[in-house]
Each structure stands twice: as structure tokens, then as C-alpha cells.
Amino acid sequence: MYDVETIRKDFPILSREVNGKPLVYLDNGASAQKPQIVIDAVTRGYAEEYANVHRGLHYLSNLATDKYEGVRDVIARFLGAKDSEEIVYTTGTTMGINLVAYGWAMEQLSAGDEIILSVMEHHANIVPWHFLRERMGVKLVWVDVDSTGHLDPQKVLDAITPRTKLIAVTQVSNVLGTVVDVKTICAGAQAQGVPVLVDGSQAAVHMPVNVEEIGCDFYAITGHKLYGPSASGAIWIRRARMDEMRPFMGGGDMIREVHKDEITWNDPPMKFEAGTPGIVQQIGLGVALEYMMGVGMENIAAHEAKLRNYTRSKLDGLNWLQVQGTTANKAAIFSFTLDGAGHAHDISTILDKKGVAVRAGQHCVGPLMDHLGLNATCRASFGMYNTEAEVDTLVEALELAHELLG
């Protein structure tokens, strides 16, 4: 049985008030809150167990190294990866995608080669490819969504040409909530010899993920959306792609030998992890993932599906609210505008007075906003600890915003 009230007790921040109202935290798409078990692990890591990893032979260094390296196995299990050495630690999805851009794509692509993107991509999965466009003459090919926000996988595959060298696509849109059929995209791309990078930032927190079943070549996640610490994350890289990559950054740990006239790299994944890492952050991420798997990813997905359906039914009754992304297969993410409201910031400010935390702005999806013909939206994004009662509070706050702004 999924007991959301018991889960809520694990997150201390959810018991606080904002502006004299109980906090209703609906900004999970930007960053999720942290359970006490993660907070405790981070505190313990700094207060009782801290030392640098890999380089020491003393007790604390060995303890930190064992805990830090053990997280690789946790992430591999969380992502359904067979080999934990295919897990590269990062500070989040942005770093992971930049690693692929600089370490793999710059080695494999040349002027005129193409990268296929969907119009829904987050800037983290756009800007690194623009760097290649500016510096190497790589061409970016865009695939639009339909009026409901659905991305047809066949349209992505139809965009492949002999010059296509990579498809980079999100599994879940951070604005529309659209769940993309990445498995079909990967199967079709693989048949044509085209690698696929999947941005799993919004997907891995909402549903079970198995990279082997998806069939992608790269899968990036970010810890702060997974109830873990900021500046933690990882990217799964298929071994064959690792062998095609050069290091992204140089420094300690990623080398085997350094001399005046030559250098040899360490083996993957260390080859791609230069310098002192976010030791405690990664340990905290491992605890967060163990916590999620303990609750059960299928259970979390089922709970959030109920929240999605309940929220959709409530928002559909507000004929002055315009929801973006109405495809049936979507995560519990709702972006909207309000008739008569000057800006999304005005809506979010009123909601905040009622204790409801939502995000307002472009959500780092400039091409999607251009496609929708909008300057900004408000976004309510749900997590494992949200409730139907909080949806009701959101609706009441929106009705107040409509009364004041509509």
C-alpha cells in the first residue's frame, strides 16, 4: 500500500508554513525536496566521515571511497544497467550532456553532420549542440510536436539522413509532461546506425527506467530532481561509445601516468571524472535512490498517475485556464496560462501568498515557447509526496488569481 502521509513525514520541509499557509510544494520539476535520510547522510558525511577519495590509505579515506564508489552500483541498479563501470559521475544532466558533446560528438562529427532534436528539449540538451553548430558547422534538425504536445517517434526517425550522427531527445518534457516513446526511437535509430542520447532528468523521478530495454547509447540523470543533493548526478554511457570518447576535462584521477612529454588516461569511468568530486553529494544521491527504490518506482508512478488524472479533471473545469500539453500519455506536470493575466509571474505571486509554490517563466525551453507562441507559463509539477488535497489548494489559489487578474 502506498501511504503518502507516511512518506510526507520523511520530508521535514513539508511541515513548514509559507506566508502563514501550509506549504504546497509543486515545483518538483525544478528541484525536489529531500527526505531526512538524505539530509542525515549528507550531514554525517561532512561531520563524521569526510576525507578525499581514492588517494588515501587511512581509515576515513577508505570509508569515503567505499561509500562513494558504492553509489555506482546503486545508480546502475536504478537505471537497469548491467555494468556499473558504464556509470560516469557528473554534477547533473547538464554536465553529462556536455561530456557527450565534447568527449564524443567533437570526435565523431564534422561540418555538415546533423543532430536531431525535438522542439521540447531543455536548454541543457540544446546549448551544447549549438556550441558544435557554431564551432564545427554541425547542423541542428528540429522535430515539432503536435497540438497536444505528442511527439511522434516516426517523425523523429523520418528526419534521419545519411548525415545524421546523433539523436538527442528528452524522455519526459519538463513543460508539457509529454512522455516520449524513446524505446521506439532508439530501435529505429539503431537499425540505421544512429546513436541516441536520452535526457532522463524528468523521467527517472517519475517512472521505472531500464536503459538496456530503452536501447539508447547515453542516458543522463540529475540528482537534485531525484530527491538527492544538488550538484550530484550521472550519465550512463554504453561501453562501445565510451571507447570512442576522449576525456572532457583533465586533472587528477582521470590519468594513469603523466610525464613531461606524454600522458596516458585512466580506464573508464575514471577517465571522465577529473579532480576531487562531489563526494558527499554522490553519497547522498545513492541514499536518495535507495529510498525511492524502497518505496518502489512502480508505486511512485501509480501514485503520480492518480495525481495527474485528478489534477487534469480539476483544471479541465476552469474554462479560463489554458493548459499546455494535453496528450493522454503525460507525467504529472501541468503548464498553464490564465486568461487576462499579464504575466505568469503575476499568477505565481498570488499562488505563493496561499503557500503554493509553482514555477513561472520559460522553464529553459526557448524553442518550445516559440513553437507555442508564448512568452512564459506557470508550471505545477508533482512528486511522490504530493496529495489530492494539495491539488484542491492549487485550484482555490488559481480561482483567486482569476478573480484578481482575469
From TrEMBL:
Residues 24-394 form the Aminotransferase class V domain. Keywords: Pyridoxal phosphate, Transferase. The keyword Chaperone does not apply. Pfam families: Aminotran_5 (PF00266). Its EC number is 2.8.1.7. SUPFAM superfamilies: PLP-dependent transferases (SSF53383). Signal peptide: none annotated. It catalyses: (sulfur carrier)-H + L-cysteine = (sulfur carrier)-SH + L-alanine. Its cofactor is pyridoxal 5'-phosphate. InterPro entries: Aminotrans_V_dom (IPR000192), Cys_dSase_SufS (IPR010970), PyrdxlP-dep_Trfase (IPR015424), PyrdxlP-dep_Trfase_major (IPR015421), PyrdxlP-dep_Trfase_small (IPR015422). It comes from the Bacteria. Belongs to the class-V pyridoxal-phosphate-dependent aminotransferase family. Csd subfamily. This is cysteine desulfurase.
